[in-house]
Amino acid sequence: MKESQGRAPVEDAILVSNVLKGDVESFQVIVEKYQLNILRFIYGMIKQKQASEDITQEVFITVYNKLDMYNNKYSFINWVLQIAKNKTIDYMRKYRKVYESDIDEAYNISSSEMGPEESLEYLEVKENVNKYIKTLDEVDKQILNLRYSQSLTFRDIGEILDITETTVKRRYYKVRDGFKVFCK
User: Fold this and answer.
1) How far is residue 104's CA from residue 149's CA, in Å, rounded to a whole number?
2) Rounded to an integer, what distance in angstroms lies between the CA atom of residue 97 and that of residue 51?
3) Exposed, middle or buried, 78 (CB in 10 Å: 0-12/13-18/19+)?
4) Please, are residues 83 and 59 in contact by the beta-carbon 8 Å criterion?
5) RNA polymerase sigma-70 region domain: from which residue to which, for each copy (predicted)?
6) Stated pTM of the model
7) Yes or no: is domain 103-184 CATH 1.10.10?
8) Looking at domain 1-100, which of 1.10.1740.10, 1.10.260.40, 3.40.50.80, 3.40.50.300 is its CATH number?
9) pLDDT (tens digit, 9 = 90+) per residue, 11-49?
10) SS3 annotation, the chain
């Protein structure tokens, strides 16, 4: 799959074009290709399985209805993640709840393969990380979530959060350095 700098992969562009011509099966391919990433992204923000599944469905309904607004000069997945972020924020506002990011999803580390001492050390580090993340504002939590659970570049994160790549880097490194101070 060939991808130009900052552009949608050729396959995505073809799928989008086919959907716009009425090919419903191409949209099913898009859903299957991105559904798990979107679900993980949303779950990383709200930590509610059922709500995450519902919002994911809403995201793909919106993608389908607004597909003609997509500009293929930009990454398709980033456009979909932007919709997912907005839908999730709408959900959070609607229910007036504060959702904390849980580091378990962000890092996906399993302690089952560790020995007892390593496992205990892992749990202590995990607890410190969770405490620290709870002190962060929502944008910093989203940056960490996108960087670790979605493995996105700083540029892509900036595009999704509608901030500059430089701002993303600055905030990311500030959070990382802040964690070192927090642990001392």
Assistant:
1) 10
2) 13
3) buried
4) yes
5) 30-97, 133-172
6) 0.59
7) yes
8) 1.10.1740.10
9) 999 999 999 999 999 999 999 999 999 999 998 888 888
10) CCCCCCCCCHHHHHHHHHHHCCCHHHHHHHHHHHHHHHHHHHHHHHCCHHHHHHHHHHHHHHHHHCHHHCCCCCCHHHHHHHHHHHHHHHHHHHHCCCCCCCHHHHHCCCCCCCCHHHHHHHHHHHHHHHHHHHCCCHHHHHHHHHHHCCCCCHHHHHHHHCCCHHHHHHHHHHHHHHHHHHHC
Each residue's pLDDT tens digit, 127-148: 878 888 889 998 998 898 888 8
- What tokens were used for 60? 């793909």
Distance in angstroms (rounded) separating the CA atoms of residues 31 and 34: 5
